[in-house]
Amino acid sequence: xxKKKTQLANTNDALSKQSDFxxxxxxxxxxxxxxxxxxNYSDLQYISNLVADSSLSSRIYDLDRLLEKDxxxxxxxxxxxIKLGRLVKPSKEGADKTIIIPTTTEEKFLHWNxxxxxxxxxxxxxxGEEAEGEVxxxxxxxxxxxxxxxxxxxxxxxxxxxxxxxxVGRILTEQFELPNLKEKGKKTSLTKFTYxxxxxxxxHGQIVDKKATLKRIVRTNLSLGRIKTEGDIxxxxxxxxxxxxxxxxxxxxxxxxxxxxxxxxxxxSGSMQGxxxxxxxxxxxYINSWLVYQYKRHVKSRFILxxxxxxxxxxxxxxxxxxxxxxxxxxxxxELVNKIVEEENLAKDYNIYIFHGTDGDxxxxxxxxxxxxxxxxxxxxxxxxxxxxxxNSSSRNDSVVEKYIRASKLLxxxxxxxxxxxxxxxxxxxxxxxxxxxxxxx
Amino acid sequence: MQLIDQHTKKIMEGCKERAAAAGLKFExxxxxxxxxxxxxxxxxxxxxxxxxxxxxxxxxxxxxGKGEYxxxxxxxxxxxxxxxxxxxxxxxxxxxxxxxMIFYHVIAHIDFFQNNKFFENxxxxxxxxxxxxxxxxxxxxxxxxxxxxxxxxxxARSIDNLVGYFTAxxxxxxxxxxxxxxxxxxxxxxxLQEIKAVTMREFLAEVDRYNKVLExxxxxxxxxxxxxxxxxxxxxxxxxxxxxxxxxxDKANDLLQFILNESSFINESKNIWMKTVVxxxxxxxxxxxxxxxxxxxxxxWASYWHEKLFMTDExxxxxxxxxxxxxxxxTAxxxxxxxPYAIGWRLFMHIEEMADKGRYSxxxxxxxxxxxxxxxxxxxxxxxxxxxxxxxxxxxGTFINRFLDQDFVNKHKLMVVGQQIDLQRNVRKYYVKSRKxxxxxxxxxxxxxxxxxxxxxxxxxxxxxxxxxYEGKELYRDYIPNTMIGLEYLWGNTVELETTEIDWxxxxxxxxxxxxxxxxDDEKIEPIxxxxxxxxxxRKVTKRKL
Lengths: 442, 546
What we know:
The complex is a heterodimer of chains A (442) and B (546). Chain A is of the alpha/beta class and 442 residues long. Chain A is built from 15 helices and 14 strands.
């Protein structure tokens, strides 16, 4: 359709240029008309220039419209249909991107090879020379895991999440009705300014402030006695002093923007393998996206992994994929967060969020040191969210971490800052994870 | 989307001439379009039919496809759709020799669409025009009924894999054979054979009598014929009356049609428009049914011909090496995995060779000596005719069952690959599980498209009762509840589904009870199967054990 518009806009040009091709030109009186009349039109120049819309569908909705549609389903009493899938693009340079793409499944009665699964084995075809029983190949269960940790190398630029995090955050906020942050605790940023038409000036300026000008004129004329207090006001009698006109002018304003640092702390010990890791990672991606949206991209994410030692990793991709079969000490992770905040003096300029995901194991059963570190964090953090994605359904609400956190009574004494949620990792579908996020951030 | 240029079209026409000379049969007219990758992304949720009805979930798939494409760009070579004329889509800027190869591939697909018996239900009309009309109908209904249309589409689609494709197909064949009036048909095919179980002689005598009556009395024949039966078999009338009453459900080919006929909700006057939507979804599914059931054959057939015809095409001599590289990429057997091009192509060649040597014979089947089998060659030269016969009369299931044999598995070193997880080293191991034809065939058959078989009936309280016949695979549990809720919506009342599931809890308990030190520890636990019933009532789905 674009072409058509430009064509119409240039009608005048088109007339003078294309008139050479005009079938009936020789029959017309040449004139300098600036518009087209009946005999100036012909198929050759008019219809052949129309370009049909080339899209194959009559319309394709954008994601917003689709999400809106999806929301209506709930009103009608059906489950939502759109799910957010994750796509991680690995890259050697470490600037991996994660994008979230909408997905959907059309649910049907489908066969599922359950008996093969119950025997723990699925088969496929293949070809080659090997004898029966011979192993022909191996595949790492974590295909993209890199060998050693490059902890703390902190690269500049984007930290793992793709540029789409903002959009994802917006979608999450809107679709899942995640709450907006009530008080972001605005902190000054010294480098940013905006220009606003806020200030007023007499005599000259960019835009006349009509209301203010009228007020001044009335005041002046009142003092001059030109306005009768009784009867109708005769505006033609009023005098207008040039100095009475009020203008608005552009001025430089300091911008108050809030910014945030988010610490994602993940337990990457051996026991976390599989579902708990999956649940924690998904949750952390969503939370990150949500904060990116809330803070209009002014978010720095830091990624910390811990087993019995803690390391900082440079990007989300490493954070996602690294796996070590060590023991678990929650304290190590908390210590590192406190150390970073202190050394970089982050508490002064940033809102600080800390999210910790674990399966609830800890070597130290009373968690004394962990609670101490947690108390330190509570002094500066805006929000600490701890998720326990439990591995085993039998130890419900019974994990070590959950026990000592509840015992510490911090949840009661710091109800605003400290939030806690636990669920069984294996049962955690998207809606449960979102629900858990709501618990952590609301 | 634009037509290919004249130069390329000329190449296509040349390919058609050569393909026709080689024996492929297809309609002369075809359309070829150049499409961009973005076009293809938009087309794929519509299964490549540009005029398919709009449905919002397709848009999500498009968005998803675009997201994925950003990260993992790829260039598809071609797609062809089964319309009249057949339409195929291409990438721009292919070199001529590549176009030749692709065109042969496409022509073979068209030949397959237009000759394989399983596509018979698509031969009578042009689907893209039908789809366009339906798209307009749905657009109009949407403007009148809003998002209700989308719910009806969604829920109809949720059981569109259960369409009675084979029932519909068998009816086509019946019509072309013999179409007897209902009563006569019942008398000969059911009453005499099943209820009376008469001997062949008696049966043929009755047929003779019927023919004579038909000759003498013409229009009155039926009355005259049954008058005598009323004397001989007075119970017949009652049987027949019961039969017609009972078989109300038989009028429907499948669950979708049954719901159309019997649903109290859809048949309310304000909802009658839903019938159109459901019927459109149903017919669309029927249209695609043969395609999914002939994937291996179709790709194998096309690969067979693109290779054969390319190598004899004198127009592009000199590109054999480039062709070989590309062809190998398409048709190489995977080390792990199943490639329909590779298996189908090799199987067609195998069949051709076997038929050439006259090995599809009792004589060959009787041979047990492996050397004799190797040398067996009657030199019949019947291979080409035979593969044409196969392409006309087989679908993937029968193709695999009939022609996959141990010789084929040996020749191509095929195997069943098993997997094991090694938790110690954190790896998944693939190993050769078997090279026996029985195992290989079972593995392939297990991967073939086979929708569940679900019977339906109405039980008291107007509840729709579905019975899933268990064939070794349970239904995917996560999808059951929402599918049931959708069905309940269409049915307008409670829906129940009886199916079989593995009782994991019970198995776990058994496993824990097992004495760890007892002998036979490695024994596998047999899956414990249990019949369960899902009920969807007022959009709440519950499950109970039977």
